[in-house]
Amino acid sequence: VAMTEPQAGSDVGNVQTSARQEGDHWCLVGRKQFISAGNGDFVIVLARSQAGSSGLDGLSLFIVPREGDNYVVERAEHKFPIRGSTTCSLVFESSRAELLGEAGGGWKEILTFMNESRIAIGLQGLGIAEAAHEKAARYAAMRKQMGLPIREHPMVAEMLLDMETTIAGLRAIATEASTLQDVVTHSKDESATRQLRELTPLVKWYGSEEVVRVCRSALQIFGGYGVVTEYEIERHMRDVLILPIYEGTSQIQSLMAVRDLMRVILRHPASLLRGGPTPMLGRARFGGDFAAARGTLVGSLRGLIAGMARRGGLALVRGRRQPTEDEIRPFMLHAERITETLAHLHVARSLLEQAARVPERRAVADRAARRARIVAKRNAEAIASGDGGVFARVDEWARQRATPSR
Fold first, then answer.
1. What percent of the chain is predicted at pLDDT more than 90?
2. Residues catalogued as catalytic
3. For 12-103, CATH number?
4. Which H, E and C letters describe the chain, residue by residue?
């Protein structure tokens, strides 16, 4: 699917590729960048079909066959990750195209693809993590230092256990999201739709950022051999670095997760008093480390909401008006910290639910809950400390942009 353009990456509303209807077909003019398999037999293109439209309005999807006229594969990018996937820059010069779906419905239609692909990225991360852990575990059992296999040294053992916990947790939430996707596809279950919306950015975030950490640990276990190309660990390390970037960066996933969370909180402020912060996490009846992590996150969110009330008044936090961009800046600054804690909480919740049915899962579930508590505490300290310097720098840059250069 060709969506990204040189000036339109995360900002999809800035798409400039245009489409005009000519008789029984359409003609596309524009440029696309970083398109996976752009040298295939055809490509699906997001283009602006309504003249004068802006933002996400007026976008449509089109099928463009490569065998048609004026479809130019300008180049294949030279990149260090996923070398087995061709990433292309494409140029359309009045290329013949067929409308896919309804005119003007492109953004709504592509969201379905994007949400499914974000779950798929989590599954891609799961595969990479499994491969990296398998190789690291085998090497750690074979490699001896100081008279022992290195896996019997506590620090290495902890790294291997941490990798196992991440993999088990990612498999749990990715499977849960995939199941919900099937339910939503074949029914109008509103509860499943809300749960899927909550989990999708977390699966993408966790299946990207945490898998980078898994591969980093695997490379460390291999030591010097890890950076030698005869071993596959360096390939896994290279390939994994694309995951936090494509199909929506980790920062975009964080903004999505936190904006949805804010809507829930502002619509139902009492959720933070009932143990919230979301219905899925609020319903989880687990104590110990899980409850401590959830309580820590709720405390952080209460602090941020209190700050919004001081700046915007009670009408804002009671949901009587929408917050301004200035009022939500602290939420946006800490969006990835909140998302990281949410992801670890959902991993712990999902594994603890498995452990309630299958006792053999108890050890990994307890490790995940303990890690969620540690992550929640670390992020809460960062949120509470604040960093006014970030906003000061942003404001300074905004003033510089607004001041005409002489």
1. 72
2. 247
3. 2.40.110.10
4. CECCECCECCCHHHCCCEEEEECCEEEEEEEEEEEECCCCCEEEEEEECCCCCCCCCCEEEEEEECCCCCEEEEEECCCCCCCCCCEEEEEEEEEEEEEECCCCCHHHHHHHHHHHHHHHHHHHHHHHHHHHHHHHHHHHHHCEECCEEHHHCHHHHHHHHHHHHHHHHHHHHHHHHHHHHHHHHHCCCHHHHHHHHHHHHHHHHHHHHHHHHHHHHHHHHHHHHHHCCCCCHHHHHHHHCCCCCCCCCHHHHHHHHHHHHHHHHHHCHHHHCCCCCCHHHHHCCCCHHHHHHHHHHHHHHHHHHHHHHHHHCHHHHCCCCCCCCCCCHHHHHCHHHHHHHHHHHHHHHHHHHHHHHCHHHHHHHHHHHHHHHHHHHHHHHHHHHCCHHHHHHHHHHHHHHHCCCC
